[in-house]
Amino acid sequence: MSLKPLAGHSVARRRLARAIATGQLPQVILVAGPEGVGKQRLGLWLGQLILCEAPGEEPCGQCRTCRLVLGLTHADLHWIVPIPRPKAGEPDKQVEEAAESIAEVMEERRKSPLYSPADGMSSHGMASARLIARRAALTPVEGKKKVFIIGEADRLVAQESSPEAANALLKLFEEPPADTYFVLTTADPGKLLPTVRSRTVPLRLGRLSDAEVREFLAAHMEPAPAAAELNALVTRANGSIGIALSETGQGAKNRKAAATWLEAVLAGTGPAAERALSQAPWSARGEFTDLLDAVAETLGDAARDAAGVPGVDRVPAALEGREPGGLLQAQALVAEARLAAQGNVNPQLLLAVLGGDLAEVL
Ligand SMILES: [Zn+2]
Hints:
This protein is α/β, with parallel strands linked by helices. Helix content is 52%, strand content 7%. The chain has 15 helices and five strands. It has a five-stranded parallel β-sheet with strand order 2-3-4-1-5, sandwiched between helices. β3 (146-150), α6 (163-174) and β4 (180-186) form a beta-alpha-beta unit. Bound molecules: zinc ion. The site of zinc ion has 9 residues, from α3.
């Protein structure tokens, strides 16, 4: 399957197309804007335009390059997404593992291009930084140019443990190789490492119009929503296709399960561990880690809300009004449980212990 078209952002598109036509496109761009408005999709669109064999105001959509980009198979378009921390100990092996993890995500996105955000535990660690540096040093495979899209760049982790890798990446942003472009995206520029942010040229995206969201959902959602559902989705989306999509499907189910579980742990009487156990069992390990991810995400949303970050609107009642410190501590506990869940542990037992721990810090 190929990528869905980019919706909206006509002003930004025109500006970028003009910059390319006049040879003034900055090599390192930071695309900032609300969650789910298509920042990474705009990065892919820009990559397609940079690489297209017959570019105009828009990529031609017909040439070999365009087709490869739209199929996410262009060798010089590197879409770097947050991934779980590699398990290997040795740096070279970690880079290989990072490359494999990213390839797996790309495979998923080829199959279902309407993706949800990366889970709360994923990041751009040093292995990803090394991977980017290595790929940036290679000669382009297809043509003359290379494009890197670094999604959710605020998840680039500062790592004192390997300053060389961090510095290599900063050096790349400072003096990118000729004909190499970096498009970083973030919903929260304030969270980006200042050393990274200062090396980028900002491009701000706004929310989409209701009409743009409606048109996109009507054309690309599967199964197509009924009229009433479509209206409700457009309203809740508040100019974000990503939010509309996350309201449906597995992601929404997981967040609902996470909220129910958190409510059970925090409310009611008797020991929290027992309440945690009273919840439905999770048989498959994948389902279980998805639930933990959703719990971590929910705690993160609640922490942002508690810290006064505007626009967070998915906080379960049981978490409202809690201290940001406790919420972040709780999130760290979930991260530990997530690691333990990779091993051979009983999910129910892990969940019971975690429930007790969360009730203590929250
Ligand atoms: Zn083209």
